[in-house]
Amino acid sequence: MKKLCLAFVVVLTFSLTSCLGPNRAFNGLHDWNEEVSENRWFNEGVFLVFNIIPVYGVCYLADIIVLNSIEWWTGDTAMEIVEG
């Protein structure tokens, strides 16, 4: 129970910080999902599958913890750093 409470406090701490980033990776995934097909039911199915196997969750977590932090500290997006 103590570990669950600690995990909740850690998640709450990270989610309530005032550092808002552009979330480019998560938004890119979301935009791709909207355009994967012209059939809205297929797009919804992809959305649900990506939530069941936590593609959206992992992408968002990586975006807010890693990519937005890199952008905040360096002033450049992570892609600009990789491209040189």
Structure description:
With 84 residues, the chain is mainly α. It has one domain. The chain is built from five helices and no strands. Helix 2 (24-35) packs across helix 4 (55-74).
Query: What class would the helix/strand composition place it in?
Result: mainly alpha
Low-confidence stretches: none
What is the number of domains? Answer: 1
Q: Could you estimate the helical fraction of the residues in percent?
A: over 70%
Rg, rounded, reads 16 Å
Describe the sheet with the most strands. Answer: none
Report the portion of residues in β strands.
Answer: under 5%
What is the terminal-to-terminal distance? 46 Å
The total of beta strands comes to 0
Q: What's the helix count?
A: 5
Concise account of the structure shown:
The chain is an all-alpha fold. Helix content is 77%, strand content 0%.
Key terms for this structure?
single chain, 84 residues, mainly alpha, 5 helices, 77% helix
